[in-house]
C-alpha cells in the first residue's frame, strides 16, 4: 500500500485497519480541494467513522505532526 507510506500516517501503519487507512488517505486528498475552493469540511469522516477529517489532517500537516493512534476510534484499530 504505497499510498499509506506518507509520513503523516507513520504512527498508524500496522495499528489500524487497511480500510481505515484508505479512508484517511482519501480524506487527505480532499485537503487541497477544501481550501482551494473555500469549501467547508463538514467533519463527515470524523463524526461517522471516528477518523480524522480533512480539516484535522490539515492541522497535522501544518504542524508537521503525524496522525496519532489516539485520533482513530478504538474499534478501527487492528486486533
Explain what the structure shows.
- The chain has 79 residues and is mainly alpha-helical.
- It has one domain (2-67).
- It is 44% helix and 0% strand.
- The chain has 3 helices and no strands.
- The chain has helices spanning 18-36, 44-49, 54-63.
- Helix 1 (18-36) crosses helix 3 (54-63).
- The longest helix is centred in the middle third of the chain and has 19 residues, at 18-36.
- The protein is globular.
- The two termini are 19 Å apart.
List keywords for this structure.
3 helices; 79 residues; 0% strand; globular; mainly alpha
The pLDDT mean sits at: 84
Question: Tell me about the biggest sheet?
Answer: none
Low-confidence stretches: none
Quaternary form: single chain
Q: Per the principal axes of the C-alpha atoms, what is the gross shape?
A: globular
Give the SSE order as H and E letters: HHH
Strand content: under 5%
List strands and helices in order, with pairings.
Elements: H1 18-36, H2 44-49, H3 54-63
Helix pairs in contact: 1-3
Structure at a glance:
With 79 residues, the chain is an all-alpha fold.
Amino acid at each position: 500500500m504505497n499510498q499509506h507510506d506518507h509520513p503523516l500516517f507513520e504512527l498508524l501503519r500496522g495499528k489500524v485497519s487497511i480500510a481505515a487507512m484508505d479512508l484517511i488517505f482519501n480524506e487527505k486528498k480532499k485537503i487541497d480541494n477544501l481550501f482551494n475552493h473555500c469549501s467547508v469540511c463538514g467533519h463527515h469522516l470524523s463524526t461517522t467513522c471516528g477518523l480524522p477529517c480533512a480539516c484535522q489532517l490539515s492541522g497535522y500537516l501544518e504542524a508537521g505532526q503525524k496522525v496519532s493512534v489516539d485520533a482513530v476510534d478504538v474499534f478501527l484499530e487492528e486486533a
